Amino acid sequence: MSQYKEIANYLVSAEEERREVPKVTVSLKPDLTVEEAYLVQQEIVNRKLSEGRRIVGPKMGLTSFAKMKQMGIEEPIYGYVFDYMLIENGGKVRLSDVIHPKVEAEVAFVMGEDLEGPGITGAQVLAKTEYVLPALEIIDSRYENFQFTLPDVIADNASTSRVVFGTSLKKPEQFELDLVGATLSINGEIKELGAGAAVLGHPAHSVAMLANMLARKGDKVRKGDVILTGGITAAVKLNFGDIVTGKFDGFGEVSFTVTD
Amino acid sequence: MTSKIEEFARNLAEAESTRVGIVPLTSIDSELTLKEAYYVQLENIKKKVEQGQKIVGKKIGLTSLAMQNLLGVDEPDYGHLLDSMVVENGGLISTDKVLQPKVEAEIAFILKKELRGPNLTALDVLQATEYIVPALEIVDSRVKDWKIKLADTVADNASSGFYVLGGKPVKVEDANLELIGMAFYKNGELVNTGVGAAALGNPANCVAWLANKLSEFDIPLRAGEVILSGALSAAVEARAGDTFTARFAHIGQVSVHF
After folding, report:
1. Interface A-B: count of C-beta contacts within 8 A
2. For every one of its 258 residues, what pLDDT tens digit does chain B have, with 9 covering 90 and above?
3. Across-strand partners of A236?
4. How many CB atoms lie within 10 A of CB A190?
5. Quick check: keyword Lyase in the entry (chain A) (predicted)?
6. Of A9, A34, A175, B60, which residue is most buried, by most CB within 10 angstroms?
């Protein structure tokens, strides 16, 4: 078995058994590089596909300038959302399904056509976008204390765990997406807020960057992909009983409840 | 007590005209009450009005939980806007007119009806509002190094400096104030984002708070006044050469140069 596959199994077991594990860069491979981390992620994706899971779309992470500065990185990261991660708007996130979840408010893009990098820009993304919609993403690092290095989090499928998509789809030209305001409330109290520009200056830039990053491995953004562009708000820890509501200007609300 | 208020008012007025920050008033008199601090503010405003300046509106400060936590308070404060504080959209502020300026992006309300507290709500505010526009507020402290406690900033006219209105006038029914998004740029680079809800959950809540608070001093908000409702994101330091722009959903943008 390749070492990448071994690391992939280590992380998938942690996810399936809902337990936090030491970082890969501590336990299995201290010299894991970013390129190798994406190979581990690919092993995880392959394994899930072989088990009959379906990809909903890629997602972007570490998309705020503040977070990038904090981690000392120049570009964000990506991972993949699978069908089993979807939760209905108004539905429940079960704590027994996850490890130490956090939530953030995001804008998602549904692609109307393929986008093949390199050299893709935000304007091209908007021209090929079928719809935009609001989302709440539940991230859940498989690592102890939600702490990791850049290669660790890439290998861990960018902490992807659950997603609640909103049910109001809009055409992208109806909005200035960088100025869409969003609030994230728990039990009626606003915890975090922001505007679309918090995502790499404009959520469409995030999709463009994704297409350009995927091009490096000969891949592309595909028609029908539903793409999470990254947090407009900072992530908030979830607790039992929380009623979580994201309000998005012009998009309505997305909500879920945290149960045991 | 009156002499203390007059003396503190003189200290602040002198700091403003000489551009030399003073030690916090609360370090001279740790007992300085909020009420007294407001009377210090009113004393200086009265003098400026006697000298021919005109009150054109009010501003609300400390509207974010972050700022309230920083100063250890649980309510906002307010100051007076004078005609001498107005800067045109895209205009220039000379750094020798300020001590230690910071810039904040806000939503401004222009009133068409008088608002006289107490017991007013956001709904009263919305009904009394002619339109809203985007604003930049240049806050400045006459207290050295911004070492302010609540009473210090209140006495200092809530650290008011200048303000700029921009964008286009929009009726309150044409935007959801709570969710108006804002992106704030310094020299073309994004520094932070915000949304209307950052100001006490809704900027109209801030104006209602102000109208109710002012009823303690028997002061109404008047038709035609400009009300700066409170910052939607953290204040950013300004130096000579800097340009600030805030872009808002629905209501346009506003900028200023130093």
Report:
1. 70
2. 578 999 999 999 999 999 999 999 999 999 999 999 999 999 999 999 999 999 999 999 999 888 888 888 888 999 999 999 999 999 999 999 999 999 999 999 999 999 999 999 999 999 999 999 999 999 999 999 999 999 999 999 999 999 999 999 999 999 999 999 999 999 999 999 999 999 999 999 999 999 999 999 899 999 999 999 999 999 999 999 999 999 999 999 999 999
3. A103
4. 18
5. yes
6. B60
One-letter amino acid at A232 equals I
pTM of the model: 0.93
- Least CB–CB distance from B249: residue in A65, A176, A194: A176
Tokens of residue A71, six digits? 């981690």
The CATH fold assigned to B2-257 is Fumarylacetoacetate hydrolase; domain 2 (3.90.850)
CA distance B225 to B109: 8
Domain ranges of chain B: 2-257
Its ipTM equals 0.90
Tell me the three-class secondary structure of chain B, residue by residue.
CHHHHHHHHHHHHHHHHHCCCECCHHHHCCCCCHHHHHHHHHHHHHHHHHCCCCEEEEEEECCCHHHHHHHCCCCCEEEEEEHHHEECCCCECCHHHCCCCEEEEEEEEEECCCECCCCCCHHHHHHHEEEEEEEEEEECCCEHHHCCCHHHHHHCHHHEEEEEECCCCECHHHCCHHHEEEEEEECCEEEEEEEHHHCCCCHHHHHHHHHHHHHHHCCCECCCCEEEEEECCCCEECCCCCEEEEEECCCEEEEEEC
For B55-72, b where at least 16 C-beta lie within 10 A, e where not — what string?
ebbbbbbbbbeebbeeee
How many domains are contained in chain A? 1
**What's the pLDDT at A70?**
85
Query: What is the domain-level CATH number for residue A220?
Result: 3.90.850.10
Q: Does B194 lie at the interface with A, CB-CB under 8 angstroms?
A: yes
Taking CA–CA distances from A64, the nearest residue in chain B reads B192
The per-residue pLDDT for B232 is 96
